[in-house]
Amino acid sequence: MLDVSDAVRAEIGEAEADRLLAGENAPGSYDCTSCRTPGDTGQERTSTVLFVGDETAVLAFAHATCIPSQVVTVSEDQLQGAVRSITGDRTPPAPQAPSVASVPPPAPAGPQPGPRQAVLGVTCGQVLIKDTLHAAIVVEPTGPITRPGSDGPGDDFLPLLIEQGFMPVTDVAGQPSPVSGWSVLLAMGQLHAILQPPAGPGAQPVAWWQAHQPLAVTEGWRTAANKSHTVIVYAAPSGSIGQQPREDLLREALEKAAAGGVLVAAAMPLAGT
User: Where is the composition biased (Pro residues) (predicted)?
Assistant: First the structure.
């Protein structure tokens, strides 16, 4: 009951793919690389997920209901962390906040700024929409984002995202619309990246934001994301949200940004396709 996508088959070769499908190299039982709960290739449909770094590749397995079979490009450091996880190196995880995980990753902001550079701060939490909790990511740069080629004093962060399909939010209680080609990569139970559409036909999605180290999320966040297979991504200009330590304060900050006309959002599928 194993799914091997054409992209994975092309990377691992026909012979290895056939051995997997014949059950010769299938793991039997496994921990899903997305939701981290047990799975069984003999009892339920299972996706093969190939993580590819600069020098290393790791084949992992996931419930087909969590993510499809695919090739995921990650940094070599992230891949080495995956190897340690798969081979049983129980390095203690990073401390995790009880309700909200926050990180300011040291990665270039995207869309790419001009001469000024900023870092995208990311906060993970859950938002209540129509009596249902949804997994959410709030993105806020540490400084203004300028349009490529511009050296003006303005902040083009929101206009650039609106051009990509994000929509202005006037009411946080409303469900944001999906945005085509974007996705959120949750692998090995941790948040790795927000992916934007590939540059051309046949290309792999590229990271718009990528965690310097995989970001631990709460079990409630992961459960909500896996239940709907969707993550809501909010974005606001620098200074609009801040690093809020609790979900109720995060909700208040989002509502304030929406009321001020400085909040955009989009619904994205969980994991890349």
Answer: 103-114
Out of 58, 86, 114, a domain closes at 86
**CA distances (Å), 249 to each of 99, 104, 233, in order?**
11, 18, 17
Q: Which residues contact 180 (CB under 8 A, 6 or more apart)?
A: 165, 197
Show the DSSP H helices in 41-106 as ranges. 76-86
Residue 96 placed within a domain:
no
The answer to whether residue 109 sits within a structural domain is: yes
- What is the total count of domains within the chain? 2
Q: For residues 145 and 253, state if they share a domain.
A: yes
Q: In the prediction, which pLDDT does 129 show?
A: 93
pLDDT by residue (tens digit) across 148-193? 766 666 788 999 999 999 999 999 999 999 998 899 988 778 888 8
pLDDT of residue 81: 59
Range of the domain at 111: 101-269
Under 8 Å between Cβ of 80 and 59: no
Burial of 154 (0-12, 13-18, 19+ CB in 10 A): exposed
Pair 68, 136 in one domain: no
Which residues, listed in sequence order, are joined to residue 38 by a DSSP beta bridge? 31
115 by Cβ neighbours in 10 Å (0-12 / 13-18 / 19+) ranks as exposed
Q: Other C-beta atoms within 10 Å of 106: how many?
A: 10
- Residue 108 in tokens: 């270039």
